[in-house]
Amino acid sequence: MFLIDLQSVGMNFLNIIYFIVALVVLVMVHEFGHFITAKMFNVYVSEFSIGFGPLIFKKKKGETEYSLRAIPFGGYCALAGENLEDAANYKDIPPERFLCGIKKWKRAIIMIAGVTLNLVLAFFLFLGYFTTTAQVDTKASHVVASSINGEPSPLQAAGYKGENIISVQYEYTIAGLDASIPTTQYFDEIDGYASLSKALSGGTYEYNGKVYAYTPTSASDIKKVTIKCEGRTDDIVLNITPYVASTSGSDDIVYAWNLMGARYATYRYNFFESIGASFKEVGESSVMIVKALGTLFTKEGINNVGGPIAVFQVSAQAASYGFGTFLLIWGMISVNLAVFNLLPFPGLDGWHFVVIVFEGITKKEMPAKAKQIASLIGMAILFILMIIVSIKDVISLF
User: Fold this and answer.
1) Which residue of 20, 80, 122, 305 is most buried, as measured by CB atoms within 10 A?
2) Got the DSSP string for 229-246?
3) Euclidean distance between CA atoms 386 and 397, whole angstroms
4) What pLDDT is attached to residue 329?
């Protein structure tokens, strides 16, 4: 007999839908950049496709056929041949409507337009995140006392009013604790989120090469927390008790400390601040991805590379944190797509852009056959790389 968690199945199904819709939007925006600029310069567009592989839907409007295909990990905008040798495929199309029949600066714009729109899309996704999501105040040395399940938390009951925290001290009474491990921990110099987070989460103790956590072992254990605050003469003292976190029998009970009832101070950007933060995030994300690409062929870089499965996992996790976080992650994925496509690697937009610029500077056309072979080899390498990364993703699931 199999028991199925229908709620979990439903959430996974929704995450798959969110993932596919978000991916299709990213691809559609990218290809629309090529499409709209090609139309602006009167280049003939025979097909605008979202996805690859088997055809799901197609409709011809005007001179262009619009199609939706089964594999959503990409798309294409079919322009009248990249050179006049492709004229046989477009017998009734005048040469001046070919991509190679327009000025080079126009061709360069068409090649770079997909990347540009991905960055624009990322900006609006970041804007959605910053306008809907509270930001943790990284400069604050205070927290907000919050209730727990509708009941006053220990921090509220102790009279904490949101003052700046100067120091935090822990005194542990834990049955069976190694006598060589100090039972008191002290944290001071609280000067912002990083040190405040460390102080409020306590910590571990390293002894003889082993790391010990101050984890409760019985229901009678106590964690006494003494908090000194700026402007207060009295200390805030909390006595935190354990609860049963899990059990698989009377001899195998796992305990954990109850919460203090503290959440970090947050703030919200106004609309104009959100615009500035979004521009900054596009820039910082782009730099971060460029640095990551620089380590691609190192052990650390390879471990950080993910394929469609990894992207789905990140997307699903982001969705569980809320709509704002989902927008943030897909904004970063959009930047990732833009920066990756800018690489001067055969088959990518950056390659075509560099070739056009090179031809413009040298006043010499690269042989069409050479460009075609380079692009085919490049796309084959990228396809193999995607398969390898996907296999890595599958292995990491087990």
Assistant:
1) 122
2) ETT-SSPEEEEE-EEEEE
3) 17
4) 94
